[in-house]
Design a protein that fits this description.
This protein is mostly helical and 535 residues long. The protein folds into three domains: 127 residues, HUPs (Rossmann fold); 82 residues, Serine Threonine Protein Phosphatase 5, Tetratricopeptide repeat (Alpha Horseshoe); 199 residues, DNA Cyclobutane Dipyrimidine Photolyase, subunit A, domain 3 (Orthogonal Bundle), CATH 1.10.579. The chain has 23 helices and five strands. The protein has a five-stranded parallel sheet with strand order 3-2-1-4-5, with helices on both faces. α12 runs antiparallel to α13, α16 packs across α18 and α17 packs across α18. The longest helix is centred in the middle third of the chain and has 23 residues. The chain is globular and about 80 Å long. The two termini are 45 Å apart.
């Protein structure tokens, strides 16, 4: 009998897994498959820290599938070649997979696979992934899908799976020689030991404080968040000191698919109804951010090009000609001369995670104070974030860079953020140890101290720690003036913003975006943007 394949991608779990559930119900022998695709890991947004996390999740998935009776096959190969070989070796009836809102490479890959399987007479069945809607005609319809998805029961873990005997299975799709050659190729491509990052050509990427991957870690985090760790969620999410504890930290697991959004909603609702140590208000706040997760995922699904180009095309040319490589390197390495900014970047490099407000600040400093184009800075952050989710990342990077046309730009003051979120300087001392001897508040603005006073604390600017790249207040004013002038000097900006709003704007009344841009006489005020997606 021809096989049913379940192609795992960024959905590394067995529970609440629609492709696995459908394939198990087909009555066919089942082949669970994960492809280690060298070209995928060669993309500019991939990093070794991502692969290490996926490797951990894959090890757990392997064990779980083996216990259910259908061991996971891991092939290191290009997808089209792998499916063609599997079909010639064993005969495929259907391939089940989740629709993936990934980067442009994965989207093109899926289209190629669909075409190849169609030519071979194999059904390629892509199942909706969460609340994201492929080929969404009207934005209003997404909210209905979100409500329907979150209210539906999670799909149960299969009790057992009907695996297949690779030695006995015959393809009946070609000549005996084809089948023998395909089996030989598969034997060479199959990986019992997962490759390491170096074998995939990934640069060394130490991340000693990285969260572990895998479903067991996801379930522990969800349980501890409900059992009291999230008690101060709403109040503590803004500071990088408290956020690491009070935020759910589940974004890594949503990105790798070891936990589904629906499972998280169900668990928090059940806890809220029966009582738990985390207050209901905090759980409701968490669920509202899961809504925004789906909202932003839908943006990239509906317009994949925003991975590369401005959401509002009227901003084309705003920053493209002004990229300062030395400023980018200083920002990337945590050496801007603004201690709180540098502490955040260094913490991110060491742990792969930092809270949403600080992510927004890092992007804002790059986009406004340093006037760097969002694509290059976004790629660096994508490689750093262990919870990198393209559907959230690129719309968020553009929003924080002020090129959507529908979100009010927020130009963070890097010194004020430090004084507000780290008033005693403990966070800066931890991550910028060269300034550890400086007292608060001067640790946040060492350039304001006379050189003799700095020297008494063992600090010489330009030797031990850099002077600021620029005057941050003057740079913020210049950025605001540039944006205002751009709106006034380029016709059609407001009409373009209305088109973006129609395509991507939230339909929740309380969170409806406003059109960005100056009124007839005065520029729009700076203000808050929609919130914390990286829990």
């Amino acid at each position: 009998m021809a096989l049913a394949v379940v192609w795992f991608k960024r959905d590394l779990r067995c529970s609440d897994h629609a492709p696995l559930h459908a394939a198990a119900a087909s009555g066919r022998p089942l082949l669970p498959l994960y492809l280690v695709e060298p070209d995928l890991w060669a993309q500019a947004d991939a990093s070794a820290r991502h692969w290490r996390l996926f490797s951990e999740a894959l090890s757990e998935l392997r064990a779980e599938l083996a216990a259910l009776g259908a061991p996971l096959w891991v092939l290191q190969a290009e997808a089209g070649t792998a499916f063609d070989a599997l079909h010639r070796a064993f005969g495929l009836a259907e391939v089940h997979a989740h629709e993936e809102t990934g980067n442009a490479w994965t989207y093109a890959r899926d289209r190629r696979v669909a075409g190849l399987l169609r030519e071979r007479g194999v059904a390629f069945i892509e199942h909706p992934n969460g609340s994201t809607v492929r080929r969404l005609a009207r934005r209003e319809a997404w909210l209905v899908q979100w409500e329907r998805h979150k209210d539906a029961a999670a799909l149960p873990l299969p009790e057992a799976l009907q695996g297949f005997d690779g030695a006995a299975q015959s393809s009946k799709t070609g000549t005996c020689g084809d089948e023998v050659a395909a089996r030989a190729w598969l034997a060479d491509a199959r990986r019992e030991r997962l490759p390491d990052g170096r074998e995939l050509g990934l640069a060394d990427d130490p991340c000693p404080g990285r969260q572990p991957g895998g479903r067991a870690s996801a379930l522990r985090l969800l349980s501890s968040f409900i059992d009291g760790r999230g008690a101060h969620y709403s109040r503590g999410m803004s500071s990088p000191i408290s956020a690491a504890k009070v935020c759910s930290r589940l974004s890594v697991h949503f990105a790798s698919g070891t936990l589904s959004i629906r499972e998280a909603v169900a668990a928090t609702r059940a806890a809220a109804s029966t009582g738990c140590a985390t207050p209901v208000r905090a759980l409701q706040s968490f669920e509202s951010r899961l809504h925004w997760q789906g909202h932003f995922m839908q943006k990239l699904e509906s317009e994949p090009a925003i991975e590369f180009r401005n959401t509002h095309r009227g901003f084309d040319g705003l920053r493209e000609a002004f990229f300062d490589r030395s400023a980018f390197e200083a920002w990337r390495s945590g050496c801007t001369g603004w201690p709180f900014v540098d502490a955040c970047m260094r913490r991110l490099a060491a742990t792969g995670w930092i809270n949403f407000r600080m992510r927004a600040m890092l992007v804002a400093v790059a986009s406004y104070h340093l006037w760097l184009h969002w694509r290059e800075t976004g790629l660096h952050l994508a490689r750093q974030f262990t919870d990198y989710e393209p559907g959230i990342h690129w719309p968020q990077v553009q929003m924080q860079s002020g090129v959507t046309g529908i979100n009010i730009p927020r130009i963070y003051n890097p010194v004020k953020q430090g004084l507000d979120q780290d008033p005693e300087g403990a966070f800066v001392r931890r991550w910028v140890p060269e300034l550890a001897a400086l007292p608060a508040p001067w640790i946040h603005l060492p350039w304001k101290l006379p050189a003799a006073q700095l020297a008494r604390h063992g600090v010489v600017l330009g030797r031990d720690y850099p002077a600021p790249l620029c005057d941050h207040e003057q740079a913020a004013r210049a950025a605001k003036a540039r944006l205002t002038a751009w709106w006034r000097e380029h016709p059609g900006m407001r009409e373009g913003a209305r088109a973006v709003l129609a395509r991507h704007g939230s339909r929740q009344k309380q969170a409806r975006p406003r059109l960005h841009g100056p009124a007839k006489k005065n520029p729009a005020p700076l203000g808050a943007t929609q919130g914390d997606l990286f829990r």
